[in-house]
Amino acid sequence: MNMRLLFRRWAGSLLGLVDEYWAMRRPWHYGNRDPQCELHCDGQQCRPGR
After folding, report:
1. 5, 18, 40, 29 alpha-carbon torsion, rounded to 10°
2. What is the per-residue pLDDT for 29?
3. Contact 38, 50 (CB under 8 A)
4. pLDDT digit string (tens) for 3-44?
5. What pLDDT score was predicted for residue 27?
6. Residue 4: which residues within 8 A CB-CB, separation 6 or more?
7. Which helix (H) or strand (E) segment is 50 a member of?
8. In angstroms, rounded to a whole number, what is the distance separating the alpha carbons of residues 38 and 50?
9. Distance, CA of 24 to CA of 18 (rounded, Å)
10. Where are the beta strands (DSSP E) in 1-50?
11. How far from the centroid of its chain's Cα atoms is residue 44's Cα?
């Protein structure tokens, strides 16, 4: 595999872990609302909601 691709995958995984840690550590940064899905799906298509 290409080293650049491996590094990008590794960095993406690391950033995902940091984001999850931050969300658990400081939940008040995300507000008081419950998480909501921003996608609207009908049948086999999904599109961003507004």
Report:
1. -150
2. 62
3. no
4. 989 998 999 889 888 888 877 776 666 666 666 667 777 878
5. 64
6. none
7. none
8. 8
9. 10
10. 39-42, 45-48
11. 22
